[in-house]
Amino acid sequence: MAVSIHPTAIVEKGAEAEALKKEISEKLRTVTDPADGHAAVRDVFDPALLYNGPFTENSPDLIVGFDAGYRSSWESVTGGLAKGVFSDNTRAWTGDHCVDPRLVPGVLFSNKKVSLEKPHIRDLSATALKLYGIAQPENMQGRPLF
Prior knowledge:
By secondary structure, this protein is α+β, with helices and mostly antiparallel strands.
């Protein structure tokens, strides 16, 4: 789930916004499921520390990494609000991007030996560009796998 400070918000960019982001992050990390006391949010990420390049300004102010079995509501992704903080998921759950990415294992099958130590998903686009002989843009974070 991404959280953004709206461009017309009353919070100014800078120290005030950073303090609010910190407060929201800390509070989100304490949200627990009333049914069993389990923490619903595993971590909150600051995109300013994750991303770089010319499109960084388009990223949200915070990214919420839910623990396994938790996600934002179906209503919230379309701008709506759910009736409560927690509700059972009664729909088919085919996948989403709400869970903390460190909980999602990755598998890559390749007929070439991967030469990078600690490869990352962002390396796939850099690899594709290299395989097609296309120069990688300077702002691209990935590295070719081979």
